[in-house]
Specification:
This protein is of the alpha+beta class and 172 residues long. It has five helices and eight strands, in the order E-E-H-H-H-E-E-E-H-E-H-E-E. A five-stranded antiparallel β-sheet has the order 1-2-3-4-5, with helices on both faces. Strands 6-8-7 form a three-stranded antiparallel β-sheet. Strand 7 and strand 8 form a beta hairpin. Helix 1 crosses helix 3. The longest helix is centred in the first third of the chain and has 18 residues.
């Protein structure tokens, strides 16, 4: 059994995903506009499968995604962490934020904590993310994280994506 760490930031708690998160997954993945770049829209069974995948990733790979909670209310804001689907070239940082929580800096704050974990705990020499051309919101986040485009690659799903290096966050 893998021990999944909890991470904290000024406003957020990043904890292991659990069945308690199903309603937030259903809300996010059920919204076709919000989940378009994350494989949505999905029905409740599809959302459950995403949640189960996020839980299982920790046990199969030793790292994965966290559920993002507001410290003050424990409301589920979204998800952030690392994924490495079978057949993909390398692990990547990935995230989603629920529609009502967007444009408040939560994705950036949670991503900084996850990136730091990748470099300091996982000891990765590179933390990266893979970006579809039309995902302008994610590209904006990567820019705010000082991400640098390092490659253009074709992925197993037939989509060409830019690959961005995400730098180690400054020590706090």
């Amino acid at each position: 059994m893998v021990c999944i760490p909890h991470l904290t930031t000024d406003r957020l708690l990043l904890r292991p995903p659990s069945e308690l998160d199903l309603a937030a997954y259903c809300e996010f993945y059920g919204d076709g506009e919000a989940s378009h770049f994350s494989g949505g829209p999905l029905d409740a069974v599809g959302a459950w499968n995403r949640l189960a995948r996020d839980c299982g990733h920790w046990h199969l790979r030793g790292y994965g995604k966290w559920t993002i909670l507001l410290k003050e209310s424990e409301a589920v804001v979204g998800s952030v962490g690392f994924a490495w689907p079978t057949g993909w070239p390398r692990p990547e940082l990935t995230w989603w934020i629920g529609s009502s929580w967007r444009r408040q800096g939560f994705a950036k704050e949670a991503s900084i904590a996850a990136i730091a974990y990748g470099y300091t705990v996982l000891k990765w020499s590179l933390v990266e993310t893979h970006m579809k051309d039309e995902n302008t919101a994610a590209r904006s986040l990567v820019s705010s994280l000082s991400g640098q485009k390092i490659a253009r690659e074709d992925f197993p799903d037939g989509v060409s994506r830019d690959v961005f290096r995400l730098p180690r966050p400054p020590a706090s």
